[in-house]
Each structure stands twice: as structure tokens, then as C-alpha cells.
Design brief:
Blueprint: H1 4-20, H2 22-33, E1 41-46, E2 54-59, H3 65-75
Antiparallel strand pairs: 1-2
Length: about 80
């Protein structure tokens, strides 16, 4: 069961994150808001100060679609 206090804290942190990084949030809304279909490729890259960047890429499978539908509801 989800703790309502934890949910409220997360929503507050989400609001701060959106304020700090509006273009990043807009990217997610545009990229995922219209849905993610089978065979969509998603690549994530991270570059920490003083380190080489690292990345990973996935191709969405049919069995992944339910998760992305649920994530889409969180965004909207």
C-alpha cells in the first residue's frame, strides 16, 4: 500500500523538479505523453562531472506496453 504522506512528498518534489528543469519535463511530456509503441527505441545517457558518459538503449517490446501506459497516466 502506498503511503499518502510519501505521495504528497513526491508530488512536491515533482513540482520543484519541473520548476528547475522545465525543458526536461516538456521533453518527457512530448516524448511519452502521446504514448510509446512497440519497437520504439529509448536511449538514456548520463555524464557525471569528471567521468566518461555512459548510456543504455532499449527497444520497447509488446510486454512493456502496459508499463508505459501506466507511466503515461502519471505524466498527464
Amino acid at each position: 500500500m502506498v503511503n499518502p504522506v510519501t505521495v504528497m512528498k513526491m508530488l512536491n518534489e515533482r513540482k520543484k523538479f519541473m520548476s528547475n528543469h522545465p525543458h526536461f519535463f516538456d521533453f518527457f511530456v512530448n516524448a511519452f505523453g502521446k504514448g510509446v509503441g512497440k519497437d520504439t527505441e529509448i536511449e538514456l545517457s548520463i555524464k557525471r562531472p569528471g567521468e566518461e558518459s555512459t548510456s543504455s538503449k532499449i527497444t520497447i517490446k509488446e510486454s512493456d506496453l502496459k508499463l508505459f501506459q501506466e507511466l503515461q497516466e502519471l505524466i498527464n
